Amino acid sequence: MSNHQAWLPLINFIRQHYGVAEGLIPLHAPCFDEAEKRLVVDCIDSTFVSSVGQYVTEFEQTVAEFTGAKHAVAVVNGTMGLYLALKVVGLQPNDLVLTQSLSFVATANAIKMHQADPVFVDVERETLGLCPDSLNAFLAEQTQLKNGQCIHRQTGRVIRACVPMHTLGFPARIDQILEICNQYHVALVEDAAESLGSFYKAQHTGTFGKMGVFSFNGNKVITTGGGGMLITDDTELARHAKHLSTTAKIPHAWLFEHDEAAYNMRMPNLNAALGLAQMQKLPAFLAEKHQLAQAYQQSPGLVMIKQPKNAQANYWLNALQCESEVERDAFLELCNGQNIQARPLWTPMHQLPIYADCLRSELPNTEWLAALVVNLPSGVKCHD
Ligand SMILES: *Cc1c(COP(=O)(O)O)cnc(C)c1O
Fold first, then answer.
1. Domain extents for the chain?
2. CB count in 10 Å sphere of residue 137
C-alpha cells in the first residue's frame, strides 16, 4: 500500500473510533475522571502532598498485588527507577550492561549515569524485544567467567547486568533471557516501563529478573503525571532501593541521621494519589486496548505486530509494519498532515552519536524494525 487512497480507510477508522471528526488525535493521551480528582483533592486537603503520606504506600501495594511481585518501591520517574535498580544490583563505574539498541533513550541513559556503558545486542522481529539467541551468541563468543564474574575478554570489563525492554508492551522471551543471564552470572533487570499489564506465560513482565521497572509518565498505560516503580521479590533489594531513594535516613522521630550518601527519588504523595485512582481503571483500560488492537489487526491490508506466542500484551502502542521505509515516511506524512499522531519507533541507540561507539553485535532486526514500524494512536477513549 503506497498510495494515499489505500490508507484512507485506516484514517477514517481512527477518526471514527475516537469520535473526533477533525481535531488532533494524539498517540496516547491519559484519561481521567472524577475518581482521579477525588483522590488528588483529598491528598491536597490532607496537606500531605509531598514525601510523607499514605497514598505512596497504597499505590505500591496495589501495583505489587496486580503484578504478583512481593515488593514495590515508588520513585520519581522510570528513568531514575532504572538507575536505582542498576545501583542496588551492584552496577559499578566502568561495567558493561547488555541491552537493546531498539529502545527509548532512557534505558541506555540509566546505564550511562553510572559511568557504565551499554552493549547492544539485537532484538527479535516477532517480539521486538531482546533476542535470546543474539544475547547468548555475544556471551558465548566474547566473554569468560572469572571469579564468578562475567568478563568481556577483549576489554577486561565486567558485564554486570542485562536490561531487556518489553517493547511497546510486547513481552520479550524473558524466561530464556533469564536462563542465559543466570548461566553467565549477569543480573537481569527488566525495563518494563511500557509493559504494565503485559504477561509472559501468565506471569507479569518485570517479575522475572532481580528487578523490574515501570514508568508512569503521561503517555504510558497509566500515569502519575511523572513517576516510576521498582518491583522485586527480593526483600533486601527492595529495602535498599527504598532506603537509597529516601536519603538513606535512619528512622527516628526527630533525628536526621543518614547511613549512606543517597538520593531523593521518592514519588510525591500527590502523584501517588493520581496513580492509585488510575490503577483501579487498569483492567478496563487493558480490555479497551485489546479491542482496539483487534480492530487494527482485522483491518484489511494492514500488517500489525501481534502479541507473541505465550504472551499477553497490553498493546500500549499498536505497531503497523510498513513494506518499505519510503512507504513508512509517506504514511507518517499523511497521518500527521491530517492531525493524527502516528510516529516511527525510536532511532536505534547505536545510530545516535552519543552511543555510536558502544560495543555491539550485528543488529539487522533492530535496523529493519526501526525502518519499517509505525505506532498508531492507541490511547483509551475518555468517557465523561
Ligand atoms: C517511558 C520509558 C522509560 C522511562 O520513563 P520516564 O518515566 O519518562 O523516566 C524508560 N524506558 C522506556 C523503554 C520507556 O518507554
1. 34-278
2. 15
Distance 264 CA to ligand 1 centre (A): 19
Q: How much is the pLDDT for 259? A: 97
CATH number of 34-278: 3.40.640.10
**Per-residue pLDDT, 318:** 98
Mutation to probe ligand 1, out of 97, 123, 215, 216 (largest number of atoms < 8 A from CB): 215
Predicted confidence (pLDDT) at residue 364 exceeds the cutoff of 90: yes
Atom 13 in ligand 1: residue holding the nearest Cα: 104
What mean pLDDT, rounded, does the chain reach?
97
Give the global pTM: 0.97
